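Worked Example 4.2. Consider the chain below.
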Amino acid sequence: MPQIFRARAVRFFAAASCAAALIAGLPSAAPAQATASSILSESPAYAVAVEDVVAKVGTHAVLRVTLRPREGYRILKAYENRVARFSAADDGVAFDAKMVRGDVEDDSLVFAIGVTPIKPGKHPINGVFRVGYLQGSNDLSMVSLPLIATVTGAE
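Applying the procedure from the previous section yields the following structure tokens:
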């Protein structure tokens, strides 16, 4: 009996040591303090331009976001390029739709996201782009990129 207990204890501590080493190597779970442009500019395929919105509380507005392919990349037009999973940090913004498809305009993907501020003040919003791109003649990829923007409700 003591040998079985000892073997189990050794396996438990070995597993715990491995788990601790893995957790120590993970990035911090602390919230990022970066701005939208610094986070979004890290995409190798797309440069992202966000036009934050200011509108009177209760008035509909359109948040425009443009994804321009970087040199050497092209838009994967056959893919359903979209942005979804919208949320506002303080529930101060209503969204027209749960998902918005991108339109190809002048070799860029343009997303027109309908929003309505429902509270006064600045409201950070976010979402997730799911877009595709081509690099070279054979390399195609689909990636997820964060949308981070601000909708301001004016009185």
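Residues 64 and 112 are 5 Å apart (CA to CA). Confidence is low (pLDDT under 50) at residues 9-41. Compare this with Example 4.1 before moving on.
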